[in-house]
Specification:
There is one protein chain. By secondary structure, this protein is of the alpha/beta class. The chain is about 55% helix and about 15% strand. The protein has helices spanning about 15, 20-30, 45-55, 65-70, 75-85, 105-115, 130-135, 140-145, 150-170; strands at about 55-65, 90-100, 120-125. Strands 1-2-3 form a three-stranded parallel sheet, with helices on both faces. α3 (about 45-55) runs parallel beside α5. The chain is globular.
Length: about 170
């Protein structure tokens, strides 16, 4: 698993994602890697719309709270529209994020997310300081804390996404 962090945020990220140069970067990455994951904001913004257009699989992060489920509605609508436009070529799933360990709230949230008719990943990212520290440093937990629970969660999520993709390719 290789990770390229964004570095400084450009003045207009949506313009960057829609640019010819970004398309070239994606093509180069796709030629060298089996899977390319672009991590973006969970809100339905112009930046998210540009990312979704470039994607073959969208992971919608949702915090383990009722408010986050409600806030995901616009993103779900945007993703479903793109799924329809691409005749189902785009895949999507929810990822429960910032789960508090050893609580049942994530299970309740998963049930509520099921009403959106998109799958919910079995992988969960728990509420951990390691993730916040990575944002500050511009690195991944795989770089900063490779043996941590956070790194294990990210690795498990990546493995689950690869399994989902493999099933689709085999179908």
């Amino acid at each position: 698993l290789s990770v390229i962090t964004s570095g400084p945020i450009p003045p207009n990220p949506a313009e960057l994602l829609g640019s010819r140069r970004f398309g070239e970067v994606l093509a180069t990455l796709a030629a060298h890697f089996d899977h390319v994951i672009i991590d973006g904001a969970p809100q339905a913004t112009e930046l998210a719309a540009s990312g979704i257009k470039a994607a073959t699989f969208v992971v919608i992060p949702v915090e383990a709270s009722e408010f986050s489920v409600w806030a995901a509605e616009d993103m779900v609508e945007l993703v479903k529209q793109r799924i329809e436009i691409t005749d189902g070529a785009l895949q999507a799933a929810f990822l429960i994020n910032k789960q508090v360990e050893n609580t049942r709230l994530a299970g309740n949230i998963a049930d509520k997310l099921a009403t959106y008719e998109l799958p919910v990943l079995q992988s969960r990212l728990c509420f951990r300081q390691a993730y916040a520290a990575c944002v500050e440093s511009g690195q991944s937990v795989l770089d900063t804390e490779p043996g941590s629970k956070a790194a294990l969660e990210v690795t498990q999520m990546a493995a689950e996404l690869v399994r989902i993709h493999a099933k689709r390719v085999a179908a």
